[in-house]
Amino acid sequence: MNLYESDVNQKSLTKCKDDLKNASKILTWNKRLLLLLGLWPESPMDFLFCASAVYYIFYLGLDFVSFVLFLRKKILNVSIFIQLLAYGHISARLLLLRRHNKTFGILFTEIKQDYELRNFESDQELRMFLKYNRPAKTMIKLLFICSTFFGVVFYVRPFLTTYFVHRAIRKAHRNVTAPFFWNTYFYKFHKITTINVYAMHYVSEFPFSILTGIISCATDCLVLTLGCHLSGRLAALSHRIRNVNFRNGSQEFKAVIRLHQQVLRIAEMIEDSLSSLMLCHILVASILMCIVLYKTLICLRPGKRIHLINTVILLFLNIVRLYSHCCVGEFLIQESRAVQAAFYECKWYTMPLQDRKLIILNLLRSQRPIRFTAGSLGTFSIQLFSEVLKSSLGYLSVLRNIV
After folding, report:
1. Burial status of residue 27 (CB atoms within 10 A of its CB: 0-12, 13-18, 19 or more)
2. Residue among 64, 117, 54 at smallest CA distance from 88
3. What is the pLDDT of residues 151-176, one digit of tens each?
4. How many domains does the chain have?
5. Which of 77, 205, 263, 350 is 20 to 30 Å from 303 at the Cα level?
6. What is the domain range of residue 266?
7. Cβ atoms of 353 and 298 closer than 8 Å
8. What is the pLDDT of residues 322-366, one digit of tens each?
9. Which parts of the chain span the membrane according to its record (predicted)?
């Protein structure tokens, strides 16, 4: 008997429905972000995706041209290398979202069905399922706020600096060439000599900044949604295993086993679809944090502190993003162990012999925890987060001795 069919009062039933409806809003966030990229699986828009990808890769190519030109002059510009690495990572995210779009569509279809009241047998099981919904929403909001704040500061600050410098020069009536400030190092096809041409170029890069924020937020929202939802499913499953009832023979236990197999199938799909994405993230995160820390040390020198705010915000954003993904990986590992413990702690001594054999098979399978993997490099967890920070600091010490 599920929660919907049980003898509960109308007030409690209404509250449970409201909780599920409020929790399902996280799916709406994913839908809105993926629609902007033309990647919502239920209504994909190939033209919008192709336009976004071509536009983004075009600007990435301009960034690469500038990087090559600096190298030909035997100048290693740290800022342009950070920019190339970050934008290259974001373009890889966009392409990987498109590659696994069909799998994400299957996953979202499965997830929608989980937000129905008939799937839960008690109010406590429902609370276990929603246990990770609030942390997921909190982390998504935090990353969205950080990305928006960084994008606004990164985009607006050089334009305001240029405007006030030109204004001060005009007031002083000085006959000098006023500088133009940029945060991006995209290759320019002609020289910029007037403030009007500068403003036109600056406005033309605005869609690129918006697209960068959308891709980052869409990827983070997707990863956190899938990871926390799967953690909630595991938490509800472990609760049901511990409280399985055998008054109706072994049918209820077999239903729990089928539910476990369904969760394992979804977990394998999530792991396969996100493995390359997480591998790309962990590789870029360790290198990017090292380079950004090195740039921070450079910005601490006199005369360079004007660029410090961008560097610090970028470093904070990358740390928060990596920490949130590692937290989700830690949730999955903990709840996988809870499912294994639940099989040990259930009332196996009251079961028929056939059900005891099923428990042995499920115990063997639950010994390998569900996890977020970064290819063969490791598993996302708090331990991996600390190892990435340590390796970044180690790379930084080597970089300071070499450069």
Report:
1. middle
2. 64
3. 887 777 777 777 777 677 667 666 65
4. 1
5. 205
6. 32-402
7. no
8. 999 999 999 999 998 888 888 887 777 777 777 777 777 777 777
9. 47-69, 75-96, 138-156, 274-294, 306-324
* Separation between Cα atoms, residue 47 and residue 188, nearest integer Å: 27
- What are the φ/ψ torsions at residue 24 (nearest 5 degrees)? -75, -5
Residue in the structure block whose two tokens are 């899938």: 226
Residue 257 lies inside a defined structural domain of this protein? yes
Give which of 96, 120, 343 is closest to 215, Cα–Cα. 96
- Residues contacting residue 386 through CB under 8 Å, at least 6 positions apart: none
Closest CA to 177 of 186, 165, 188: 165
H helices present in 73-114, as ranges = 78-99, 101-114
> 11 lies in a domain?
no
- Phi, psi at residue 373, to the nearest 5°? -110, 145
Structure tokens at 279: 């591998």
Number of helices and strands in the chain (H, E) = 13, 0
Residue 234 lies in a domain: yes
Helix (H) / strand (E) element for 72: namely helix 46-72
With b for 16 or more beta-carbon neighbours within 10 A and e for fewer, the 264-279 pattern comes to: bebbebbbebbbbbbb
Q: Which residues contact 137 (CB under 8 A, 6 or more apart)?
A: 25, 26
The angle that helices 25-36 and 101-114 make with each other, rounded to 10 degrees, is: 160
For residues 230 and 266, the answer to whether their CB atoms sit within 8 Å is yes
